[in-house]
Every structure is written in C-alpha cells, then in structure tokens.
User: Fold Rab-GAP TBC domain-containing protein from Denticeps clupeoides.
Amino acid sequence: HTVSSDRDSPPLETLRVKCPAQGHDGSKWGLNLGLLVRGRVCYLYGGETGYRTGLFSKRQAEAGPPSQSAPGWKLFGKVPLREGGQKDSRTIQQDRNPGNFTSVSTPNLLGTGEYEARTGKLSPTAVPDGCPHGRRKNLEFQPLSTTALILEDRPANLPAKSSEEAQRHRQEYDEMVAEAKKRELKDARRKVKQMKERFRQEDIIANTMVVWNTEILPNWESMRNTRRARDLWWQGLPPNVRGRVWSLAVGNELNITPELYEIFLSRAKERWKSFSETGSEAEMASLADRESSLDLIKLDIARTFPSLFIFQKGGPYHDLLHSVLGAYTCYRPDVGYVQGMSFIAAVLILNLEEADAFIAFANLLNKPCQMAFFRVDHELMLKYFAAFEAFFEENLPRLCEHFRGYSLTPDLYLIDWIFTLYSKSLPLDVACRVWDVFCRDGEEFLFRTGLGILRLYEDVLLQMDFIHIAQFLTRLPEDMASENLFSCISSTQMVSGNRKWTQVRRAVALAL
Assistant:
C-alpha cells in the first residue's frame, strides 16, 4: 500500500491510497477508501485513484471547476447531480441496480431539526438558503455519541457490487448496529447499578450517623469498645462524625490546648519572617535545633494532594496546612519537619478544625511507631520490618518467597506507606477508611493493611520482577475499591506461630 499527498490541488488536501484489488468479474483495479465525518454522520467514499477529505479551503471560491478528464471520483466541487435528486442519509434506498447498496439508516439518531437545535449547525443533509443544491458548505461539525455509517455506490467507472457483496455489507452493518446497541444497553445498566449502589451507601451512612450521634458519641467511654461500635467502625465512619471520632480515639496525652497551639504558631511566624528578611540559609541551618526545617515545608506543601488543588499556593487550605506544620516544628524541634508529614496533617485538616487538627497531629506522631519512623530510628524500624515479614510469610508464603527471590525487603515499600499512613499511596476515600480502623486498633492495623494490599494484588505481583514490583507498590492503582481491600484485610490473620502482633514484635526485639 502506498499513501501520497497531492499538493497540487489548492482547494483541498488530497490523500491518495493505492490498494490493488480484483473485482468480482476478475478485473483488476485500484481501490481507495476514505471516511468523512460530518456531524453525526460518517461517509464512506471510494475511488479509483484517490479520495479527497478534510475541510473546505478558504480559497475554494477561487478554484475553477474540476476537470472532467481527471481520474478518480470527485467528492467535492461542481459535479452533476445524480438522477433522483440528493439522497437522504437517514433512509434506506435502493439504486436501480438491486445489487448496489446506496445508504443505510441508523436507529436512535437525532432528527435533522433536533440536531441543528442542539449543535447550532447545519445537518449534513440540510441545504441553506441561497446555497446551490449540489454544494456542501460546512464540514466543521462536532460528532456526537451516535454516528451513522453511510455506504455509497461505487462510482460509475468502477465495477458495481454484486448482490452477494451488497448483502454481506448489509449484514456487517446490521451486526455493527446490534453491537452498538448492546454496548449502550450495557452502559445504561452499569450506570443504573452504580446509582442504586450510591443510594444504598447514602442510606447506610445516614442511618449510621444517627447511631453515632445519638448512642455512641454521647456515651463514648462505655460504648467505644462494644461489639456494635466496633462493627460500625469497621464499615467506615460517616464523614460528619469522622473528625470527632478520630480526636477521641487518638486522645490528647500531651495535654495540648488551643492556646498552646497559638503560641507555637506565633513562634513559627516569627521564624518565617526572620528567614524572609535575612534570607540566610546558612544561619537557619546552623541552628542547634531542627526548626531550620521550617523552610522545607513550603517545598513539600506543593506536593500534597496535587490533584485536589486546595493545599497548593493560592488554595483555600494552603495557609492552614502551612500553619499546622510550622507550629509542630517549633513544638517538636527534636523531630522537626520530615517529608510525608504534610499528607497526615492535610487529612486531619480536611476533617477537623485548625487547633483540633494540630492537637490530633501532635498526639498521632507521638505514638511509638510513628515516632520511630519520623525520628528515623533505624534499629526500631528494623524490628517493625522483621515483625511484618513474619506475618507476611505466614499469610502469603508464595508471594513472600517471590519477594525474597528478588531480594525485595519490606523497607522498600513500607516506609512510604507508614510515613504517610497510606494517605499518599491509596485513594483518599480508601485511606480515610484505613485511618478509621487505625484509630481503633492502633499500629497493628497499619501493617495488617500492608498485608491486605499485597493479598489484593498477589496474582499481579507474582508475574512481576523487582523493578515492576517496586514501581507498582509505590504507585498503587487509583481505582482500588475499599470493599475489595477490606475484604483482603479481613482475610489476613495477625497470628504467627500462635503469637499475636505485640508478642511477635517483642520476640523480634529480643532476637535483634
């Protein structure tokens, strides 16, 4: 096959496709096909030497009439009208030759008037006032969802279709229409199913919210560990009560007050002001404490949930996130700011008021597991990794052996998950549900969630090598469904050799 572009014709771009073929009568000839989209209609054209497609040139009025001796089928220009007038592309007509299939209608298409009303443009078969009947003026139509396929007769200088060929084309077209109808019906059923599921979830959330507000939260200490409360916790907290439940579950062992938050926020603002005035990075880096990490916050905030566009500069929560992180670096100069903290603080800000978010943030990072990671306590981190690997081998022996074959250790993927409490790795709604149970069960659930993710994608991971596994676990699929993940988490038993998480972690600590 050869494709060439005819640059000699100024009005239109000509694409010439030479395709040797043989007619039903044994004659050999060159077949050229083209597809032209106008509005909701696709025209299939054919010719002996080429076909013209594209838009009308602005210089079309200057072009003279086409040469009658020029080879090929003239699709545009001043060509004589066919007998019987212009054909309607929405009806089925038979030419005088019964073997020639002229045009085919498609169901469920907009009428000409309705199409013009919706698009504000002329339909392919509409002829504007003052426009010659045989000339098409405008091809710049935006095709909508449904497209008709029009099969034209072959030009007179080509062999006509046989009755068998025309029948075959009709059958192929009917199959295409039937397949399109099936797809549309399938999509409609899927949308109805999704809508029903959405309504069902909304009803569940509404009913659950009533239980939390009227029964559990007013009697928090006596109800928090009941079977009913724990079951509702596992199903996911309603957004309206999520922040309050998190605050109560995390607690405030540090006895931080809103007034204390304002004090450290003022100190952070003074630091920022001093840094902006002096501009001395050496002075900031030479401080004995780690408050020098204040300037690093600005760099990391821009990378926090970038798809939401609410924490970046100019966003509604940019200053709020900046304040919470800055106040914490002044509150805990021994820890300072560590990359990943911004995701944790951002999730809390989305569910809590500013001062409450800071209180929960400081107490959450004060937990043993988080403190070990954010202070980069390598010895303690290795103990957590060893305990995780023991449960990994117990629950997923094949995948664990596959990872060991590539020397892929837990620290390569667990660090990012634990540093951000899965808020960076998982979809935000799924991450919030993980946080719900994490606030209930503590650090054990973080590692159980990691095993649940590995179980969910076990079959995929078993087919990958080291590089692809590391890339996959760093960037998990965005279409992950919370129900699928929590089903895998519930199938993961945190028991290894009849020992629970805390017992295994202590045993590992003694062994190391």
The mean pLDDT is 76. The domain at 370-512 is CATH 1.10.472.80 (Cyclin A; domain 1). Residues 163-216 form the longest helix (54 residues).
